[in-house]
């Protein structure tokens, strides 16, 4: 990051405290995801039935579950898996969708029509149901969850990139690049894509939150990550059985972690747009 970009980022964050809080929350979450397994006070998988279903206390900050496992330790360790799934899926769909959408918007013709029909077919299905079907067919492994989440996110990026490039493909600076001898691929990758990426930043941030919810939802219904792996969706599913008995912490803390994470990424979207958009550099 250059000094000018850093100054611009600081200026944006100072003028928008909500974005600053969201950025701080996302940063803390990412740090916990990286170092979490080494700082948690208890083994997130080891059982201790003698201390099962203990409420939050000075020893167990978020209580214990039905097997005596520390809920706080499981929350911290689960952040790594959920963030890894979301980041991998969104990165895959973003790169593939942006390139394919940009090529469709630039060239038009058969490629645009075929890809457009493919996107229409994907959008015709309820996306979470489509993810359920793919994971059920492929198997509930982490890599299959990433693939399924990436596929259902593809239409957003393809359509967005296509529309943005289609508007700009006949602009003067694009014609100038072609007149200078740049190939069509070079024009798309060097000139058109960098100009649409800031507009896609908001969608990336929103999709990160949605991808985390998707992974947690699949785990909640038994099609995601398998127990005893710490994962927020599994923790909510296991804790739901004890709500009627007053064991509120088993659902409250994983649900709060999900809510705050998704909220941070949603609020971060507008700030990313302002930071990456060159028109905001005044």
Automatic annotation (TrEMBL):
Q: Name one GO cellular component term.
A: plasma membrane
Any keyword Zinc?
no
The record places domain ABC transmembrane type-1 at: 79-269
What is the annotated localization of this protein? Answer: Cell membrane
The UniProt entry lists membrane topology as: Multi-pass membrane protein
InterPro entries listed in its UniProt record = BP-dependent_transpt_permease, MetI-like, MetI-like_sf, OppC_N
**GO biological process per UniProt:** peptide transport; protein transport; transmembrane transport
Q: Which residues cross the membrane?
A: 20-40, 83-106, 118-139, 145-161, 208-228, 248-269
Alphabetized, the UniProt keywords read: Cell membrane, Membrane, Peptide transport, Protein transport, Transmembrane, Transmembrane helix, Transport
Family named by the database record? Belongs to the binding-protein-dependent transport system permease family.
Q: What is this protein called?
A: Peptide ABC transporter permease
